[in-house]
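We now fix the convention by which a protein and its fold are recorded. Here is one such record, which you should read through line by line:

>
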Amino acid sequence: MKKHKSDLVVVGAGAAGLFASIHATELGLKVLTLEKNEYAGKKLFITGKGRCNVTNDSDIGNFINQIYPNGKFLYPAFKNFFVDEVISFFEKQNVPLELERGGRYFPKSNKSSDIVNALVNRCKSLKINILYNSKVINILSENNEIFGLEYESNNTKFQVETKKIILCTGGKSYPLTGSTGDGYNFAQKLGHTIIDPKPSLVSLICKDNFFENIDNLTLKNIKANLMIDNKICKCEFGELEIQGKILLGPVILTLSRWAVEALEKKQKVDIVIDFKPALDYEQLNKRLIKDFNENSKTKFENLLKLIIPIKLIPVFIKVLEIDKNKLANQLNSNERKKIIQQLKEFKISIFENSGFANAIITNGGINTKEINPQTMESKIIKGLFFAGEIIDLDAKTGGYNLQIAFSTGWLAAM
């Protein structure tokens, strides 16, 4: 086995790993970065549908409120390196960011490749040694202290003598990008507790066949309630997408964290859609009376075009059990009440989630109680640090998760 030395070994060349490598090198350390993929930032390339939502224009308090299960753990990391520092870093690499709705920052070019290239090019300018196609086999420790690791590259095994390791191996989401939970195994062998990883920010699969003939429908400005065992537990406003039996879009991705946990516990999970959240029941009733009176000779099927997207009309006709050829002036008050109820409380039973293969982030990971929030160092093994998705921290969509990766990577390096 070939041997060499390094001040620090960073395992993983994703968002957290690249930032950790850069900052540690800037601080004067000799850094070796090991990446099992053939190139860096494989998951970053597909983030934000290829646009890469880098961070969010929120203050620390709001940021922490979007992070689960213990956002306060990140306060020291955010105090040291936060949104302004991320924006400044990329601007210095000639990648300006642009603020969009919801406080989301994207590269002006709308290309995630610009974010990855900025990080990789900074590594090159600092002459950081990144070894690709290099898989860590074992982390070496003695008396609860790191003394090295072993890895394999090009069918050759190596041993690195080092007293500092930062694990940035990600979670289990999008395993095709290399996030297969390797870091959990290493940490567990060294005595760490792993909070059971689950898919988060993931699409949900309907039990019913309401939407089986709908290929692609985006509903904007709706309200979605998550019901667990017939009790509303979470609510989101915004955009929802329907692709056959699959529900996705920002509101579903956010609600999925709790839906996945409930499904795992064999609880009853429903998504209840309010198609008209701007109108209460009385206002909606008046609106329908007005539409029915103004279109008294219009068939019910055509009347629905004034109320809902065309693709949903067959669904509503089936659920309401109202003759599609019935004229507006023939609809009675009970039928109008049924229409209102479905517009405000359209219930969809959820059967399953789409799994880690389609999850944006992982819920679970290294227990934060076993990590020093001031340094990201293990409380169990001296010299072992964690950064990014490997930690039991996950957030809603909007750039929050990448900021976690950048901030924890920077702090671990420091």
